[in-house]
Design brief:
mainly alpha; three-stranded antiparallel beta sheet; 16 helices; 3 strands; globular; disordered C terminus
């Protein structure tokens, strides 16, 4: 028992407690906001599920930090194929969530969103793929392989679910990881130009409803029913003013006027009830967490861990920017949740799991924590 306590003490001394504490504080504040957002439903289900996910998430953080990812990286092809099949399983097992997208696999009252967990697998397999290419990263063959790796994954995510928001997250992660890999500016410029060139084809591939989600930002009259969520989000934020209307006192929130108030629009709930000050607290917490992730990436002593950390940092960055952008009316409503604050067990566990992976790289760069002389 003494050895167990010493091991726990050493772990806490050398793990990245800043990451863990930021995640726990953000999750607890998110839980407070979710409770208020769902108060009018007269059910504690949402708070209970989110609390259970928080406990599981902390466990996953610790477990992930103790797994040496580099030892299993050689099996990246297996995990790549598994991820593709996992996403495609939605064709058979998928059910629609609150957004209408066929993005969930449900077992009784428990729901799993494959694309959430798939983001971590994608980041790790792409990082390993890039690392295996070493100095050949700028060859035509290497760029083609990495692009195919990305396209197969994002297609497996989008085609069964039609989840545009999740597909956008994968695109951003791929872009940041390729930029971080040492890819030459010639290739970066070429890939960017190609993306712009094919964008009209992608636009035609989108459904009318998805296109209108983007167009209403420029002309709300195109589809007032779609713009309604953005409009109410902005009104809720404005109603909060500097200090907010008070906890559980927000009119838009408590009278069920604000759509998706405990998921996509949780930032607006916080803005209405805690005002500008509350929004600033959220931004500072999440901004500090992202900066810490990029800092950890810069401290990694090998390419694989550096790319995984950069990919995870980019995952958080895009979700934060798009979710807050949706609430303030500068980004289309595409269903990306605000990390740690929005309701969602799969999302919360995934976020803690990803932070645990980063913390694991930090731990293994300090092997002294395992020595009894350091206990």
């Amino acid at each position: 028992m003494v050895k167990v306590f010493k091991a726990i003490k050493s772990y806490l001394r050398h793990t990245d407690l800043l990451l863990l504490n930021l995640a726990i504080i953000s999750s607890l504040l998110g839980l407070v906001a979710i409770y208020s957002a769902t108060l009018s439903y007269h059910s504690n289900k949402y708070a209970i599920v989110q609390s259970a996910a928080l406990v599981l998430g902390v466990f996953c953080f610790v477990a992930a930090s103790l797994i040496d990812l580099e030892n299993i990286a050689r099996f990246w092809k297996f995990f790549f194929v598994f991820n593709i099949l996992f996403q495609l399983s939605l064709f058979v097992l998928g059910t629609a969530g609150d957004t209408g997208n066929r993005s969930w696999i449900r077992f009784g009252g428990i729901g799993i969103q494959p694309a959430e967990f798939g983001k971590i697998i994608f980041i790790c397999t792409l990082a390993c793929h890039i690392d295996r290419l070493k100095d050949r990263i700028n060859s035509v063959k290497a760029v083609a392989q990495l692009t195919l790796h990305f396209l197969l994954t994002v297609a497996a995510v989008y085609i069964p679910s039609k989840d545009l928001g999740m597909a956008v997250a994968y695109v951003f992660i791929f872009a940041i990881m390729m930029f971080s890999s040492g890819l030459s500016w010639k290739w970066i410029g070429g890939i960017t130009a190609s993306a712009v060139a094919v964008s009209p084809l992608v636009w035609k591939f989108l459904g009318d409803y998805q296109r209108n989600r983007i167009l209403v930002l420029f002309d709300p009259a195109i589809d007032p029913s779609i713009y309604y969520q953005t409009d109410q989000s902005i009104l809720a934020l404005g109603a909060g003013q500097f200090l907010g209307s008070g906890y559980m006192q927000g009119r838009q929130t408590q009278y069920n006027i604000l759509p998706a108030k405990y998921t996509d629009s949780i930032f607006s709930v916080i803005g209405e009830e805690f005002g500008f000050v509350g929004c600033c607290v959220v931004i500072v917490l999440l901004g500090t967490l992202v900066l810490r992730l990029f800092y950890n990436a810069s401290q990694c002593d090998n390419r694989f861990s550096y790319l995984v950390c950069a990919g995870i940092a980019s995952m958080f960055t895009i979700q934060i920017l798009i979710n807050i952008g949706m609430c303030v009316g500068v980004m289309p409503v595409i269903g990306l949740t605000l990390p740690f604050f929005s309701y969602g067990g799969s999302s919360l566990v995934t976020m803690f799991l990803s932070l645990g992976i980063v913390a694991g790289f930090v731990l293994r760069q300090r092997p002294a924590w395992l020595r009894s002389s350091d206990e």
